[in-house]
Design goal:
It contains 8 helices and 2 strands; from the N terminus they run ααββαααααα. With 176 residues, it is mainly alpha-helical. It has a two-stranded antiparallel ribbon with strand order 1-2.
Length: 176
């Protein structure tokens, strides 16, 4: 399906659910697409077990808006997902990461976003937004599945400039 005008509702719901997982749980595309239907965080299940890079496993909470997006997709998907992958392509086979990359590229163009707006950027936004709202680096490291804290620390550089701007803009002495 080349554009949203002709894409069936279930495909739009699928794409929304995948993107919600990338941003709402900080998953890599490969991690989201590796989920099986039986692992879907719906019907009272609010966490998922992910096997990430290096075979490291982690358990992640899945927030309600993401669970709703996944449930909506499952409810309207025309394929029987039992015993197979959670996310399927137009013909019912496993969904290719390239499809999600294409969806994001199409949205990027339609919204006038920079080339840096990629599926992986949603994962970065997840981490940056948690850090910006008081999340600690070690917890974010665990949520992202980073083996090394130094990998997670790249997000502090983003926050350093925001914190500096905040102090200069709002501190009484910053205006002198």
């Amino acid at each position: 399906y080349r554009d949203d005008q002709t894409a069936p509702a279930w495909i739009l719901a699928r794409d929304s659910a995948v993107l919600a997982l990338l941003y709402g749980a900080g998953l890599r595309i490969s991690e989201a697409l590796s989920l099986s239907r039986q692992e879907a965080p719906i019907d009272g299940i609010d966490r998922i077990r992910i096997t990430g890079k290096g075979g490291r496993q982690r358990v992640l909470p899945v927030i309600e808006p993401v669970r709703r997006a996944i449930k909506n997709y499952i409810d309207i998907c025309p394929y029987n997902l039992q015993g197979g992958p959670l996310f399927v392509g137009a013909r019912g086979g496993p969904l290719s990461p390239r499809v999600i990359q294409y969806v994001v590229a199409r949205l990027r163009g339609a919204l006038g976003l920079p080339d840096s707006a990629t599926p992986h950027a949603l994962r970065h936004s997840f981490a940056t937004h948690l850090l910006g709202r008081g999340g600690d680096l070690r917890t974010i490291q665990e949520l992202l599945g980073h083996a090394s804290l130094s990998t997670t620390q790249i997000y502090t550089h983003i926050m350093d400039s925001k914190l500096k701007e905040l102090v200069f803009k709002h501190h009484p002495l910053g205006k002198m």
